[in-house]
UniProtKB/TrEMBL annotation:
Organism (species): Algoriphagus oliviformis
Assigned keywords, A-Z: Kinase, Membrane, Phosphoprotein, Transferase, Transmembrane, Transmembrane helix
Catalytic function, reaction form: ATP + protein L-histidine = ADP + protein N-phospho-L-histidine
PROSITE patterns, sorted: HIS_KIN
Name the record gives this protein: histidine kinase
Length: 591
């Protein structure tokens, strides 16, 4: 073989070696998915290197040998470009494993046809030597497969370029610059090849300037990779970071248009398709101006808002983080969305439980005080009186005189013990509700008889109204305790010589039972405590002591029986407690 160097061949050989060397070096610096740009550059350098050697050859046979070698790079460069574009933009081929191998089917077939062209002449129909220029050039007559090579090369370059443009046309400035440089890397050589294929620009009647264009472009890209860390921030890596985030994330550019978002962000919109690359913030936040105001703020901001989700609402925490390219110049913003609905419910539940626990602790302290004073005092008093009587210090006549007062104290102790035992049962193991269909009139009259003596001692009349043929569905023991506490409480605060009215009204599905006294009444402050379920105690008309436990149990037992409690009172005029309970039909008599 005879080789004669010329400036065109020398330029191609040197630039090909330079791009090839840079490609190998860069290949060790980049990650796997981005490394395919290196394979594209390496394929182009193989094409350019062997085309440069072809330009030094002097015979057709020698030129065809180098032509076959240069086609190894020429046919592979378009496929490598498409693979790089797909991997660089994060294309997921896990469910389509055949995609990448299929891209190399036509290049492999084409190269086999090139190697065996002398048998079938499908690629080159004929070849000759062009000697009209300053150096010999291989002349070719295209075979039927040659247009196939040109067509799939153009389609592949367009496909890769369009994939890049489609993915990053609204990206931030960094990725826009990367994409612009890469698109230029694909289109610049394409334009020169189009001029060559159309014979509009073919120096010396056959010189192909496409390899020059490729090598020049990839030389610039190599410098950009090494000097400016072109692929230091890979979109795929950034996308993976966004996707593993549990919070919704949306990235806006300086024009407040969406340039990226993760799949979690779609969950915050009724129609997930409303969230698209390039959509302005004004469009997606038109119903939330408070969120829109966060964009463009120079510092990190956080707000809590409520967003509608079809048939419900979400409480959402929104964080706005400004993104700056340099200094204080805001080039975009990151918004993070977190659904805190359950968190708020949990916090409210914890606050409620903490409040209830505090009330229970306060009540516990109060009960210990009750046991140590209200119970201890009367019991020890009776014990001491018995001791004095036994020793003859107190005579039988004196003992009998004190007996009514002792009896009154024991009545108070009995009610207190009953309430304490009932409350302890309720708090420690809960209450089993055993509903019965009860004759409410009979139950009320029974409780009236039990409390009649206490009322008579204060000259108070207990009056019943509306209890004829009244039936209720309640727990008997609980309802008896409710009545005893309400009536005894009314007696306690009634003026001597007045009355306590116990009445009942029939409603649609409920019975309304009211206990009204004409005594002291309740102050507004204490009325608010009662309505809030806060335990407290006050002394009665005759200085009777109390614990506040009775009304607490009344409210709890009414709720457990499916009823309600209302309290109306005016100072100096009296108080009216009204209880609603489920109404029941009278049982059918058994024949």
């Amino acid at each position: 073989m005879e080789f004669i160097l010329n400036p065109y061949a020398l330029t191609l050989i040197i630039s090909s070696l330079l791009v090839g060397g840079l490609s190998v070096y860069i290949g060790f610096k980049l990650e796997d998915s981005v490394r395919w740009i290196v394979f594209t550059m390496l394929a182009s350098s193989v094409w350019g290197f062997f085309y440069g050697i072809e330009l030094t050859a002097q015979t057709v046979d020698d030129m065809l040998v180098w032509s076959k070698l240069q086609y190894a790079g020429l046919v592979m460069a378009p496929s490598c470009w498409v693979v790089f574009s797909l991997k660089y933009t994060g294309y997921d081929s896990s469910d389509k494993p055949w995609v990448y191998p299929s891209l190399f089917f036509l290049p492999i077939v084409t190269y086999i046809l090139v190697l065996t062209n002398s048998w079938h002449h499908l690629h080159y129909r004929s070849t000759w030597l062009i000697t009209s220029g300053p150096f010999p050039i291989l002349g070719i007559e295209k075979g039927i497969w040659y247009p196939v090579l040109v067509a799939y090369s153009y389609v592949f370059y367009f496909l890769g370029t369009f994939t890049l443009w489609k993915r990053f046309k609204y990206a931030n400035l960094h990725f826009q610059r990367q994409t612009q440089l890469l698109i230029m890397g694909g289109l610049f050589p394409f334009v020169f090849n189009l001029l060559y294929q159309a014979a509009w620009f073919k120096p010396f009647d056959g010189l192909d300037i496409t390899p020059y264009a490729f090598l020049f472009t990839y030389l610039l890209i190599s410098i950009a990779i090494l000097r400016f860390n072109l692929f230091n921030l890979k979109p795929v890596a950034r996308e993976k970071i966004l996707e593993v985030m549990t919070h919704g994330a949306i990235i806006f550019d300086h024009r407040h248009k969406i340039v990226d978002f993760n799949s979690a962000a779609r969950k915050f919109w009724n129609d997930p398709l409303d969230l698209k690359i390039g959509v302005p913030a004004e469009q997606i936040f038109h119903s939330h101006p408070e969120i829109l105001q966060l964009l463009g703020q120079p510092s990190h901001r956080v707000l809590q808002t409520r967003m509608s989700k079809k048939d419900c609402f979400w409480d959402v925490k929104v964080e706005s983080v400004p993104l700056s390219d340099s200094g204080a110049i805001v080039s975009g913003g990151l918004m993070l969305f977190e659904n805190i609905t359950e968190q708020i419910k949990t916090n409210e539940q914890l606050k409620k439980q903490a409040s209830e626990l505090q009330q229970l602790n306060d009540l516990k302290d109060k009960f210990f005080s009750i046991i140590s004073h209200d119970l201890k005092g009367p019991v020890f008093g009776v014990k001491e009186l018995i001791h004095l009587t036994q020793n003859g210090i107190v005579t039988e006549e004196e003992f009998l005189e004190m007996l009514p007062e002792i009896s009154k104290n024991m009545e108070h102790v009995a009610i207190l013990l009953e309430n304490l035992l009932a409350w302890t049962s309720s708090q420690l193991r809960g209450e089993y509700i055993q509903r019965e269909t009860l004759d409410l009139g009979k139950l009320i009259r029974s409780q009236k008889n039990l409390l009649e003596r206490i009322a008579r001692e204060k000259s108070i009349l207990l009056e019943l109204r509306g209890f004829e043929d009244i039936w209720a569905s309640v727990d008997k023991n609980m309802f008896e305790l409710i009545i005893r506490n309400l009536v005894s409480n009314a007696i306690k605060f009634s003026k001597p010589g007045s009355k306590v009215l116990i009445s009942c009204e029939q409603e649609d599905k409920t019975l309304k039972l009211c206990v009204k006294d004409y005594g002291m009444g309740i102050s507004e402050e204490n009325l608010q405590k009662l309505n809030a379920g806060i335990s407290f105690s006050t002394r009665g008309q005759s200085n009777e002591s109390g614990t506040g436990l009775g009304l607490l149990l009344v409210r709890e037992y009414i709720v457990k029986n499916g009823g309600t409690l209302t309290i109306d009172s005016k100072l100096g005029e009296g108080t009216k407690f009204c209880v609603t309970v489920p109404r029941a039909k009278a049982p059918v008599p058994v024949a």
